[in-house]
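Example record

One chain of 251 residues, shown exactly as stored in the release files.
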Amino acid sequence: MQVLIVEDDAALGLFLQKGLKLEGHDVEWVEDGEAALERVEAMRPDLVVLDLSLPRRDGIEVLAEMQGRYAGTAVLVLTGRSMTEERVKCLDLGADDCMLKPFSFHELTARCRALMRRKERFADPVLRHGDVELNRMERRVVRNGAVVDLTAKEFSLLEHLMQRQGRCCSRAELLERVWQMSPDAGTNVVDVYVNYLRKKLGPVGMDDSGGHAVIETIRGEGYRMFGSAVPAKKQPGRAAVFAGVAAMARA
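Predicted structure tokens for this chain:
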């Protein structure tokens, strides 16, 4: 999953980021409500783990702003507020689940998995980007009404890029997620298959330069679908998580 953590407690935020990455997820962490809304708009995550007590804009405001706008994003609220009315308000504003602090990290990951199973059960099998449609159930790609014949690996690569909804995907990420290879593998297979897809899908628009490729290269970053949002900012390096932080989440 692509997960956005919104938590102003630095120790807990670091712990959740590290723990969910070890679970195999792609995780970003922000510390206030305003930044949370900016990142949700840019990255369209699968899941937001949202604290309620936040600077700039609190979690209730974030939920209200998100309500009805991001159907593909699940929200798990973390709160130290024990009043039932607060949790009911969160659920009414679109949260999918609520957990009281302190919590067990194992329970949190189990709830995340349950939310994703629920999402996948009701997800639209068709991904769309511009005039490209990818049907995951039928394993079929259509562009401008014409079926595009793709190999299994080409289909998986395009599916991954379209699922990211405009976020730039690095070569390392694509190697790991599409080819199940080490992100450090010394191979140009990603570049080769991106070129295959470009030739089969054709350009976007036509002008004196011949149009743009459906999949564009972001220099120094990787690839994304053409016309998408700017690539996600790289997260600065984080300090190692202290052992005491784990005890906080397990309490």
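Notes: Residues 28 and 80 are 22 Å apart (CA to CA).
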